[in-house]
Design brief:
mainly alpha; Four Helix Bundle (Hemerythrin (Met), subunit A); two-stranded antiparallel ribbon; 4 helices; 5% strand
Amino acid sequence: MNKSELLEWLQEEYRQWEALVEEIGPTRMDQPGVNGQWSMKDLVAHLNGWQPRLITRMQAAQRNEPEPPPPWPATLQNEDEINAWIYESNRGRAVREVLDESARLFQQLLTVVEG
C-alpha cells in the first residue's frame, strides 16, 4: 500500500465511522451499554485519548526525534490505568465536544500521514 492508497483508505474508513455516529445520533451517544457500562461517547473519548500518542510518535519519527512522552501522567504504568485515566478525564464532557475532538484528531492524523 502506498501513501495515496493509505490516505484513501483512512478517509473511507472515517466516512464509515461518521455514518455510524450519525446513525446512533446525539441523543443516544450517552446511553451506557456499548462496551460494558461505557456509552458511545465514552468509546469515542477513549479512542481520542489514545490518538494523540499515535500522532506525536509519528511526527517525532518523521523528524528523526526521540519518542515523545505520552499525554497521560507518567505515573500510569499499564493500559488499564491509562484507560481509567482517559475515562475519568472525559466522562463529564459534552458529546459534541468529544465528536469535534475526534474530527480534529482525524485531520491531524491525515496531515501526518500526508507528510
